[in-house]
Amino acid sequence: MRELSILIPTFNDPCSTLVRNLHQQAEALGMTYEILVADDGSTQEKVLEENRSINALPHCQLIERGVNAGRASIRNFLAQQARYAWLLFIDSDMVVCRNDYLRKYASCDETPIVDGGVVIGACKPGNLRSLYEKAAESQHTPEERQLSPYRDFHTANFMIKRTLMLQQPFDERFKSYGYEDVLFGKAMEKASVPILHIDNPMSFEIFEENEHFVSKTEEGLRTLYEFRNELQGYSRLLDRIQTLPHTPIRCWHQLFGAIERRHLTSRRPSLWVFNLYKIGYFLNIASRN
Question: Which end of the chain, N or C, is less packed with Cβ atoms under 10 Å?
């Protein structure tokens, strides 16, 4: 595999350093490549200004779309814009952590989808996202992911054949945050498309503040509820909720959810409280619908 389109969807994330590192590796390999960054309606002008420097690099382009179309739509757009047979999707908040990152992907051209995974950077004290990701890191090994290759598929760092991506695009009903990758994994299993999980990670080191992460989590839970029937069997949270007593947890959340949320946005958040809050929040959504 000597031709590769590296595709980076972004929203309010400065990613010029990521692009420069990928550009350097691609140039060293002497491969035919392009790096396309699609800005999905970023609202921070400072971020846009920094990312526009990407256009100065050979074979690199920033595409500014102006409006926010969502995580599914922006990936489909990038696949349509790409020129080459293989597509490498990377989230814009990832960090290159291996000098042979592109070389390893270049040798994986026998499986239509390859998931390289992520590693988690140093834990940031008091940061809920950092604590959450670090606690789940053991589930991100290629061996663990390969045990459930479709259920554990994620979009932060994966390569796919362009023809497959155009035939099986992401579901653009997913406008809000969360779970478009889970439904994509389900679609690949239904279509009997093999997914290979390998040890070729990007590093996750940029963690949003607690308030932002809790808000994103709530948005993801609303997405999960909206698509709960289609995601059944592919969401560990849905599986867990089925085994729990709904009424007492829902009542607890109605009484203490606001207190839990203040705790989660404080300087010393607890993962135990976070997990309880997520279940209560989801059940509270269900009770209103």
Answer: C
